[in-house]
Amino acid sequence: MDKRRRQFDKKDEKEIVYNGFVVMTAAERPYMEALIAPLQNLEIDDVLEVGFGLGISAEAIQKTISPLKVHDIIEIEETIFEDLHVFSMRYEKANAIDGDVYTYKFNRTYDLIFFDSFDYSLSFVNQTDYDETENS
Questions:
Q1: Which candidate, 44, 75, 83, 132, has a CA 20 to 30 Å from the CA of 110?
Q2: Is the previous residue joined to 67 through a cis bond, with omega within 30 degrees of 0?
């Protein structure tokens, strides 16, 4: 998939919506925190996170996993990558990677891969057809 700046229906600190599909919402915070909380008891040094969204899981990883040596976060969408870059300036171990997880050449292995990306190709599905399929 080509990396590009997409035209979001809505993009603010509470929600990202693209072509009628919710990419991420702040309401996911408790869920993301619950997913990451058990990781505090594991020996995890190097994390790869796929997709940044609102940064909810990235922040939870930074606050939960300690000591964290590497937290690479890869983002394909340009405006969300800009948000990721700002986030990486606040957290020493966070590294913003501008790219596509499927084509990027990683030069390390990771103890944990947290995969919560949005497939922008889904936005090209006709919503009416999707609803009909769901209800079949």
A1: 83
A2: yes
C-alpha closest to that of 114 among 47, 27, 39: 47
Cβ of 114: how many Cβ atoms within 10 Å?
A: 21
Distance CA 58, CA 49 (A): 7
Secondary structure class of 39 (helix, strand, coil): helix
- Whole-structure pTM value: 0.85
Q: How far apart are CA 28 and CA 41, in angstroms?
A: 23
Residue 57: which of 1, 117, 110 has the closest Cα? 117
51: alpha, beta or left? (left if phi > 0; alpha if psi -120 to 50): left
